[in-house]
Amino acid sequence: MAFPADWAGYASPNSLLPPSSSLSNFTYLISLSEMPASWWSNVKSDGGDIRVTKSDGSTQLPFDLIEWDYASQTGILAIQYTGTQTTSPDDFYIWAGDASATLPAAGDTYGQYNTYESGIKCFYPNGGGNDRTVNALNLTMTGATTGDSDGPINGSKATNYNGTNQKASRSSGAQSGDCLFLAHFYDTKGAGTSVIFARSSAAGNIGAGIFLISSTSEQIAVYRDGAGSPVSTSTGTSTPLNNWGAGGSGFDATAGQIFTRSYLGANNAVSSSDGDGGTTGIFIAAGGSTNYWGGRVANALYKTDLTNKDDFMDYWFSMIDASDPDQSNFYGGWTWTANSGPSSFNPAWAKNSNQVLNYA
Q1: Which of 47, 157, 198, 319 could form a disulfide with 283 if both were Cys (CB 3.0 to 4.6 A apart)?
Q2: Residue 105 counted as domain residue
Q3: Whole-structure pTM over 0.70, yes or no?
């Protein structure tokens, strides 16, 4: 079994959206529902032959098969573009079609754990439960939450929280200093103060939450440890009731600022100088007796690297956008290229040959 010679071919994006500035080791999420028909007709039923490379066709990239449903031809794939994506981004190829191949183990060079760069502390694509990173900061689910609701893009999943007594929590694993929280949320409860994602020194109550994305007067707000009112609030937009919204918040230790950024039809950022606080636990949809989050949560990510943080958030939320569930605005559809040609397969040759079939 030799890669890529023994593989049937690959799918590549037609027009990958560029970031606003260079981003290093960016993790892409891809709806496999949008793969061309030829990709699905060649891939193994268990997805074991999926491989990812840069556009040279040979430099492999780590990936994580987060969701997979062969019968329905849906799934979610995360890949890390190892290196730097510039404002003229390099494409990547998603390979399929080798009956003897198996998925890399989680700890392998091109396996699950290396899909998430070291600055990503934890990632819960389904809004709770198991962390996909090597840190294994898995959460304890309280109150019999309901999983597997539809997420913001095709094939993705979310966790439902009832707004009364359900939460996900971990009593350790957070750290002091720089942090960035990102989450997608589907509000079914309405206006009020509800915790979506927090780093906290206590049991996740609103007064103890240090950073949260919360629905306060239908806006995104951020609190700090012990603060009874938000120190940073987004302006100009409202959280959509019974619809997906998204936002980010965090603490920049160098600037001494807590910041927010909301994605509810417009990007809004408000910064407020403040100090850091206690950081012993991680909580999703936590709250007190009346302020639990009600609705769905997906793609909860805690990051400690703030390099180009605003551009990172903009690019992340452009990629995972509920108004673009097939990701056509971000990837521009996908093209299948068959692995045929000279005896030494050259992907650049094949892409310029008549072997290209565009199903976008």
Answers
A1: 198
A2: yes
A3: yes
